[in-house]
Amino acid sequence: MHQPQSTVQPATIHPKIYALYDEYCHGAMDRREFLAKASAIAVGGMAMAQALFPRYASAQTISFTDPRIKASYVKYASPGGSSGEMRGYLVQPTSPTATQFPVVLVIHENRGLNPYIEDVARRLAAAGFLALAPDGLYPMGGYPGNDEEGKLLQDKLNPSQLQTDMLNSAIFLKNHALSNGKLGVTGFCWGGGMTSEIAAALGDGVKAGAPYYGIAPSADKVSKIKAEMVLHFAENDPRINVSWPAFEAGLKAQGTAYAAHLYAGTQHGFHNNSTPRYQQAAADLSWSRTLALFQKTLKA
User: Fold this and answer.
1) Which among 114, 107, 130 has a CA at the least distance from the CA of 59?
2) What are phi and psi of 75, to 5 degrees?
3) I need a labelling partner for 72 at 20 to 30 A (CA). Which of 44, 89, 247, 296 fits?
4) Do the Cβ atoms of 49 and 36 come closer than 8 Å?
5) How far apart are CA 69 and CA 12, in angstroms?
6) Of the candidates 246, 179, 185, 258, which has an alpha carbon nearest to the alpha carbon of residue 218?
7) CB count, 10 Å around CB of 156?
8) 145-168 pLDDT, tens per residue?
């Protein structure tokens, strides 16, 4: 991975502006209010705030033409979901011999299937997994091309139906003709929380889960998780981290295999290499741990 180009470096961004950006990303304010509040915090606050918006063109790590992969958009049924049909980005390895692959569902943040999430799916395919990244906004016309409009669209969806769309995506992938039947799930932010929700919903049907800075499921759902879990948390993320102790207690109580990692000096979203919240050392280490989990549980 590489750091996107910006005239403002991560270390120079005021901590309060990082906190404001997290509120903005999760619907507490619109873009105009975020920029105005950031400008009032520090000299250069406007530039710091603008630097946090994603720059996808400079963040791609694996091209869609990479010879190791084959990518396409697929549609599939989603009974009980937002519209009864879903669309996702399916990426398979171009192995000359293998006819089936271990599978990983990649769940986006709260703004639909943006280029960063598609790149994550390509990374997984390059590592030998059949990856599917569903677009929860498909019933609304799909990811609109920018995160702000995507967030507004996702806010309009019925949460229960959207979750059903993600669950149906997992089932579609697990049963795909190219699948070896072993399913892993990973996701980021909203998708991190959804990773744990799907692990609970499918029980033994999910072999491994790797949520990134996701909110914990309710206690009754934690008791249903059978997958081995590797959980990633940012150090500076109190909104998410406050839910971890109870989550951990539930995993321990039922003897679920898990490892939780807190990455020092990081912000929520540290894996996303399209913004200055990206922290390469933590992103690379967390990704190596995620791949190791999937290698162990899905390819064996």
Assistant:
1) 114
2) -115, 150
3) 296
4) no
5) 38
6) 246
7) 9
8) 888 889 899 999 999 999 999 999
Predicted TM-score of the model (pTM):
0.86
Could you give the CA distance from residue 89 to residue 132 in angstroms, rounded to a whole number? Answer: 6
Pull the structure tokens for residue 167.
Answer: 């669950």
The pair phi, psi for residue 277, each rounded to 5°, is -70, -20
Residue count of the chain: 300
pLDDT in tens, 230-269: 999 999 999 999 999 999 999 999 999 999 999 999 999 9
* Start-to-end CA span in the chain (Å): 27
Q: To 5 degrees, how large is the angle CA 131–CA 95–CA 103?
A: 25
Amino acid at 89: Y
What does the chain look like in DSSP terms, one character per residue? --PPP-SS-GGGS-HHHHHHHHHHHTTSS-HHHHHHHHHHHSTTHHHHHHHTS--GGGT--S-TT-TTEEEEEEEEEETTSSSEEEEEEEEEE--SS-S-EEEEEEE--TT-S-HHHHHHHHHHHHTT-EEEEE-TTGGGTS--SSHHHHHHHHHHS-HHHHHHHHHHHHHHHHTSTTEEEEEEEEEETHHHHHHHHHHHHHGGG--EEEEES-PPPPHHHHTT--SEEEEEEEEE-HHHHTTHHHHHHHHHHHT--EEEEEEEEEETTTT-TTSTT--HHHHHHHHHHHHHHHHHHH--
User: Distances from the Cα of 150 to the Cαs of 11, 15, 25, 86, 263, in angstroms?
Assistant: 28, 25, 11, 16, 28
Q: Which amino acid does the sequence have at 168?
A: N
